[in-house]
Amino acid sequence: MSDLMPTIDAEASPLYVVNGLHLMVMVPVARDAVAGLDEAYTEASLDLTTGIQSTGTTIDARWKVTPDHQHVLLQLYGRAPKPFELAVRFEVQTDRERQGFLDMAAFGDTGRVSLWIYPDKEDAARAAVALQKRDAELFVCLGIGVEEDMPCRTLHRLARPPHTVP
């Protein structure tokens, strides 16, 4: 993979659903955002809807806060079925946006945060509604479970003043 990770602006802020000590985070990421992601969506869909064992989908993820605290990046590293790298950039311009990420970090300190990606914001919203209606099958079929226990400690940086270069 290259040193320069392709970056897209987030289509929408992450959606969150709390299920006991589990926070489920849903992020829209377009199928065509980067080569290899469409195949990951297809493989995940085949696994869950056809019962046919595919090659599987493996995507690693991590959060990164820019030094000026104006953006949070969700960095995705596709491993299978095809390798890819992609960063999804979220703007952090308002107190509400900042607090959403800080709440996620705080939840991760005491509970589990899972990350799911969906082809668009409508599918992410449908997934959130499916969770609230306890329709796990629809929730899972709409997207990809990326991380079951997503590390969120780095998001605590948003509570401190941004790093400035003199």
Instruction: Give the distance, in angstroms, between the N- and C-terminal Cα atoms.
Output: 33 Å
Task: Estimate the mean pLDDT confidence.
Answer: 89
Output the structural class: alpha/beta
Segments where pLDDT lies below 50 for 5+ residues? none
Overall geometry: globular
Looking across the biggest beta sheet, what order are the strands in? 1-6-5-4
What is the helix fraction of residues, given as a range?
25-40%
Q: Counting H and I runs of at least 4 residues, what is the number of helices?
A: 4
Structure description:
The longest helix has 16 residues, at 95-110. The mean pLDDT is 89. It is built from 4 helices and 8 strands. The strands form 2 sheets. The protein has a 4-stranded mixed sheet, with no helix packed on it. It is globular and about 55 Å long. The chain is of the alpha/beta class. β2 and β3 (22-28) form a beta hairpin.
Write the layout of secondary structure elements.
Elements: E1 7-9, E2 15-19, E3 22-28, H1 37-49, E4 58-65, E5 71-80, E6 84-91, H2 95-110, E7 112-118, H3 121-132, H4 136-141, E8 144-147
Parallel strand pairs: 1-6, 3-7
Antiparallel strand pairs: 2-3, 4-5, 5-6, 7-8
